[in-house]
Amino acid sequence: MKFNPIQALLIFAVTLSSCATKKVSESPKEVASKEIFVSSELRQKAIAAAREAEEDHDHTSILGSAVIENPHEYGQRTYFLYGAEHLNLENYYFDIPVVYNKAVKKWITYFLNRGRGFFERYSARAGRYAPILGKILEEHGLPRDLIFLAMAESGFQNKAKSWARAVGPWQFMPYTGRRFGLHIDWFVDERRDPIKATIAASRYLKKLYKEFGAWELAAAAYNAGEGKVSRAIRRYKTENFWRISRGRYLKRETKNYVPKIMALAIIGKNLKTFGFEEIDFHEPLDFQEVEVGPATDLFKVATELDIEFEELQRLNPEILRWFTPPQGDYKLRVPVGKKTAFNDCCAGKADKLIAKDFMPYRIKGRRSTLNDVARKFKIKDKQVLTWLNGSKPNTRLKRGQQVLLPFREGQNIRANMYADLYERPRKAVRMRRAWKKRIRRALRRGRKIASPRYYKVKKGDSLWTVSRKTGTSLDTLIVSNYQILKRRRIRAGDKLAVK
User: Fold this and answer.
1) What would the pLDDT profile of 120-178 be if each residue is shown by its tens digit?
2) Can you list the positions of beta strands (E) in 86-245?
3) Mean pLDDT value across the chain
4) Are 99 and 81 in contact (CB under 8 A)?
5) What integer is the mean pLDDT of 347-368?
6) What is the pLDDT of residues 451-473, one digit of tens each?
7) Going by CATH, does the domain composed of 40-268 fall within 1.10.530.10?
8) Is residue 25 scored above 50 in pLDDT?
9) Number of separate helices (H) and strands (E) present in the chain
10) Nearest to 131 by CA among 149, 118, 144, 150
11) What are the helix (H) ranges across 213-268?
12) Cβ count within 10 A of residue 11
């Protein structure tokens, strides 16, 4: 099958309504905002703030944090750090509540010792992103020192990904990201865009503060979820985070989260005091924008502009693949000074840059469909192959027929660009899946014991050892004790039905 990019784009336009990202159903109270649009005015303000911060910075505090020289003239509520006067800090004022207690001291000690390398790397990256993040927070009427929440979440890494699949500098889960206006599909993940993700985080944090009325609780809810914190408040009959954290209801991660943010803020605004005055801050994020057509090949753009492909990736971290999304024009960020070069070579010449070097694949089975190909190559969004090949997902394909894959020809499909397709889940998740699969197989093959005798599980026993001791097949053992095993694994003291 020959690839016709114009035809493919027309096909995609027809099928767009069926393959668009599904909206999560929400109650009216949960609907926070529409899709995020970054105005050129906000973008320019943010970039200007980054340049200004770099010029005026005296390297005593993290770029982008609140500069409070006179708290009475600051314009927002300020908080003094009581109990830390003996530290002789350069900055005692913050625009979020910060305390100096045992929990916060523990994290300060960590970042001054074992975690010192982490703090230095976080701070270096802050030079690039924190000024823009701080400006966006300020534009939304939020405290600038909330940048330390992003620092705690990701260390200002756009590609950061947690074990729970939270992504980006603000570590949004897919549901929450979409809820606050971020677009996530096979082609882009705006959770990784530092500007759009910060706008979404501003919306979310605004909602949390309005709901809980205290930044400590809002931060805890950002980590654990609104429902969890609301239940904790009802359970302990208090809205004081520190009292709630004495109980067992909140997870240790959430209990540590708030003091960690405060410790980062204290150190981050007093770098000289804590011996971090030699941090090599990255240059502030700065860029120009050009408009490119649908499915633009970023390798071709990099070649035309005489820059590294990785530089385009660094400026556009939300683009997951080697080409821009196929559903419309795209505002692409390019290095400062390259907009003129782009206008000279490529403006108005979308065909010149359109992606064509897609990887061909020949069908091997007799009864294959595009759905089968999507499963084989772990392409969860099956409409991607529909867009590329102009066939419906369930259309039968002939053996030897060529289809196109969304990988670049000659590229390893295990490249970092496709890491999200092939990443392995955590060991605990893999073990749980294997256990459930084993249970299902036993339910198909085993027979329940009609007149059992019982074996009391001893410490160190497993189903396999019990099976060997009693001469009961593993499948029979599982089926006969399914009431226990459907909820959990066996424990010492359990009575198992055996032959």
Assistant:
1) 999 999 999 999 999 999 999 999 999 999 999 999 999 998 877 899 999 999 999 99
2) 93-94
3) 87
4) yes
5) 89
6) 888 998 888 888 888 888 888 88
7) yes
8) no
9) 22, 10
10) 144
11) 215-224, 226-236, 241-244, 252-268
12) 18
CA distances from 249 to 229, 319, 362, 439 (A): 9, 39, 55, 32
Residues 34, 39, 43, 49, Cα dihedral to 10°: -90
By the 8 A CB rule, do 369 and 375 touch? no
CA 274 to each of CA 56, 91, 279: distance values in angstroms, whole numbers, following the listed order: 21, 12, 12
- Identify the helix (H) or strand (E) that includes residue 402: strand 402-408
- What's the length of the chain? 499
Distance of CA 487 to the CA centre of its chain: 31
Domain boundaries, the chain: 40-268, 287-356, 358-422, 428-498
Question: What are the distances in angstroms from CA 329 to CA 293, 311, 350?
Answer: 4, 20, 10
Helix, strand, coil abundance in the chain, percent, nearest 5: 50, 10, 40
Q: With a cut of 80, say whether residue 48 has pLDDT above it.
A: no
Query: Quick one: CA dihedral 174, 178, 182, 186, positive or negative?
Result: positive
Token representation of residue 158:
């756009």
Could you give the C-alpha distances from 134 to 87, 148, 271, in angstroms and in order?
Answer: 26, 10, 18
Rounded to two decimals, the pTM is: 0.80
Over residues 403-411, the mean pLDDT reads: 92
CA 72 to chain centroid = 38
Contacts (Cβ under 8 Å, ≥6 apart) of 388: 3, 8, 358, 403, 404, 405, 406
Q: Above 70 in pLDDT, residue 437?
A: yes
Q: What are phi and psi of 277, to 5 degrees?
A: -75, -10
Residue numbers annotated as active site: 153
Give the residue among 133, 116, 117, 120 at the shortest CA–CA distance from 169.
133
Which pLDDT value is given to residue 9? 43
- Hey, do 40-268 and 428-498 end up sharing a CATH topology, with the first three levels equal? no
Higher pLDDT, 412 or 101: 101
| Residue that has been written with the tokens 């226990």 in this structure | 484
Torsion of CA 205, 211, 216, 220, to 10 degrees: -70
pLDDT tens per residue across span 298-335: 999 999 999 999 999 999 999 999 999 998 899 999 99
Domain 428-498 superfamily per CATH? LysM domain (3.10.350.10)
Q: What is the pLDDT of residues 220-279, one digit of tens each?
A: 999 999 999 999 999 999 999 999 999 999 999 999 999 999 999 999 999 999 999 889
Q: Which of 273, 288, 142 is nearest to 203 (CA)?
A: 142
Report d(CA 295, CA 325) in Å as an integer: 5
Would you state the structure tokens that stand for residue 213, as one six-digit string? 């009325």
φ, ψ of residue 400 to 5 degrees: the values are: 90, -10
